[in-house]
Amino acid sequence: MKKLFNQQKNRILEAAFREWSKTHFTKTSLTALAKELNLSKAALYHYFANKDHILSSMTEKFINDMAGSLDAFIARYQNNPLHNLIKQYNAFLFNYFHEHPYYCAFLHAYIMRSKPEQARQFSQLQQKINHVFTPALLNAGHIEDNESIELSLRFIQLTAFFWLMQLFRSKQHTQSHSHFLNFSKQASKESIQQYIRKSREYCLSGFAASLSHHEIDTAAIEKTSWIQASEMLKADRIFSAIEQVISEEGYTKASVEKITTRIGINKSSLYFYFKNKNDMLFKTIKREQEHFINLTNIRLKKLNSFDEKLYSFIIALTSYTVNNPGMITVLNWARYQNVGIALPHQELHKIFSKFDYISDALEHGSLRGGKEDFNAIFVFIFFLIMHKLRELPVKVKDHSNYLPFTRQIFSLFCNGITGYISRNKKPHQQKGKAYVKQQ
Q1: Cα(412)–Cα(151) distance, rounded to whole angstroms?
Q2: DSSP for 104-164?
Q3: Are 328 and 246 in contact (CB under 8 A)?
Q4: Domain assignments of the chain as residue spans, ordered by start
């Protein structure tokens, strides 16, 4: 009897992964789930107390299944050198999620909209990956600095995850955005191998076609490209209201009703100006976006080479975000509230057109790939930087604290893990000396 009960519970969970992945887990309707299973909602409550119980059970199932597969991978490859470990990890990740596309949708939803309790549960998977890659990085000669190692680990993970997402990108769109991902899409073996090769090559060797092009005056670019607080827009009242409510209520309890009350209008009046939450945030963020592009272009026009412009962009994006922590707060709130901030195609095209130095670099061979990769590479640069910056707890006055991060991001993007390590060998490294875990 218990076996049949557990089998039905598992059947419900598998159906929830399939059904709710259609909306990237932004809509988790019990009615739709019951219909998919040909059950009544009352029947669902026989197995689960409520929707939150289903979602927590889904998280537990995903983590247990993924952990088991990771353990098998680690047992086979944990003593491999870094180059082969990255190669095998990419192949494992792509093949696993191609076989489990709804798990991929779930992981994507977690990364984009995770809540604190979920983050704690998922951390065990991250710890497994870090445990196998950290010794490999150190054995390869990576400097023994915790922040530097953490960023290199993040680069390995995000590179694999980002290019994995390209397998599920809808044909009708070229942007890498959650709204354009189709997790029911069946990728061909050729596509899988193509993106595995891309992910592996970009991770190991970076995006630049040659290592000799990246001797730039980083200090000079940092000085001229850092956006100052005095250049920022005056605080937007919607941003300010969201920040204030979040500071008092936390992310999950900061409802639109509480935010509109803080602004001093009712919800219906807010939607007189905006169609919905998405529209409200989009119009507010668009204002910031246009200002950022204007400030960045002023800086880019003063530079000549692709490398200088790329590093200037990294500095500008970092400094703009540091000077505007409210933007990070709002984006995090949007994730927790399952609000998808979808930029229309024409808006993305406007942004991309301002950074034609990337498409020029692809055309002239300074970057790996073809012009068809422009959108994905541009979004990846932004994704790589913002994934770290969105964790900023508070505004830091001394911007020099961010320079090790910006310099490493630039080096990892251009040179990959192997290039970064070769340029930053740990001091007095003994050839062939193995990393020994401290007891």
Answers
A1: 9
A2: HHHHHHHHHH--HHHHHHHHHHHHHHHHHHHHHHHHTT----HHHHHHHHHHHHHHHHHHH
A3: no
A4: 2-205, 211-423
Residue type at 166 in one-letter notation: Q
User: In CATH terms, are 2-205 and 211-423 the same topology?
Assistant: yes
Q: Which CATH superfamily is domain 2-205 in?
A: Tetracycline Repressor, domain 2 (1.10.357.10)
Number of neighbouring beta carbons within 10 Å of residue 308: 21
Q: What is the pLDDT of residues 72-129, one digit of tens each?
A: 999 999 999 999 999 999 999 999 999 999 998 888 877 655 555 666 778 888 899 9
Task: Please tell me the pTM assigned to this model.
Answer: 0.84
Contacts of 430 (CB under 8 A, 6+ apart): none
Q: 351: exposed, middle or buried (C-beta count within 10 Å: 0-12, 13-18, 19+)?
A: middle
Q: Are 159 and 171 in contact (CB under 8 A)?
A: no
Report domain 211-423's class.
mainly alpha
Q: Tokens for 149, please give them.
A: 């190692």
- CA distances to 95, 111, 240 from 160, in Å: 12, 14, 36
C-alpha to C-alpha distance for 188 and 198, rounded to whole angstroms: 15
Are 311 and 221 contacting, i.e. CB atoms less than 8 angstroms apart? yes
Asked whether residue 164 carries a pLDDT value surpassing 80, the answer given is yes
DSSP classification of residue 12: H
List phi, psi (to 5°) of 87. Answer: -60, -50
CB 204 within 8 A of CB 85: no
**Straight-line distance from the first to the last Cα atom of the chain, in angstroms, rounded to the nearest whole number:** 47
Who's near 103: CB < 8 A, 6+ residues apart?
Answer: 17, 62, 65, 66, 96, 97
